[in-house]
Amino acid sequence: MATFELEAAATSIHDGLPNRIHQVMDRHAAATPDRAALTDDGAAMTYRELDRAVSGTADALLALGIRAGDRVMIVSENCIALACLLFAASRLDAWATVANPRLSPRELDQICDHSGARRAFFTADVSPEAAAHASRCGANVRKVGPSSASA
User: Fold this and answer.
1) pLDDT digit string (tens) for 63-82?
2) Which of 4, 84, 110, 124 has its CA 20 to 30 A from that of 104?
């Protein structure tokens, strides 16, 4: 009986929580579209702008063949481009693994292999380290969302 009561209490705590990370942003975009969502080295985005950027990024990922259930690796510094890639992957029901571009090539290769990532994205225009990894991996620079990313 006590186990059932604990399970019921835990369920009520989680009621109304989003199932996917992009749903957190979607709620804010609907409720407060003109409120600041992100800032990045002097650049800022409202929730409305972020929502549009995430939609554009999701469309770009779809065009690159990313689909539900895929795993993708994002090699990026903390930046708006990372947020857009992460939310876009969530909207597509893909699984994103985020890696710090300051890791060694060996470490990134292990993360990519272990995660089973179908594709890797490097925010090359944001981070020289990410650009170096993109070059090492032979990634092509493409427009993906609000910035160029190597894929």
Assistant:
1) 999 999 999 999 999 999 99
2) 84
Residue type, 122: F
| pLDDT per residue as tens digits for the range 119-146 | 999 998 889 999 999 999 999 888 786 6
Model-wide pTM > 0.70: yes
C-beta of residue 47 within 8 angstroms of C-beta of residue 84 = no
Confidence of residue 1 (pLDDT cuts 50, 70, 90): very low
CB 84 within 8 A of CB 29: no
Which residue ranges make up each domain of the chain? 20-150
| The dihedral sign for the CA sequence 71, 98, 120, 17 | positive
Q: Are 118 and 61 in contact (CB under 8 A)?
A: no
Kindly write down the DSSP assignment for every residue of 104-129, as one continuous string: -HHHHHHHHHHHT-SEEEE-TTT-HH
Phi (first) and psi of residue 33, to 5 degrees:
-60, -25
For the 20-150 domain, the top CATH level (class) is alpha beta
Other residues' Cβ atoms within 10 Å of the Cβ of residue 64? 14
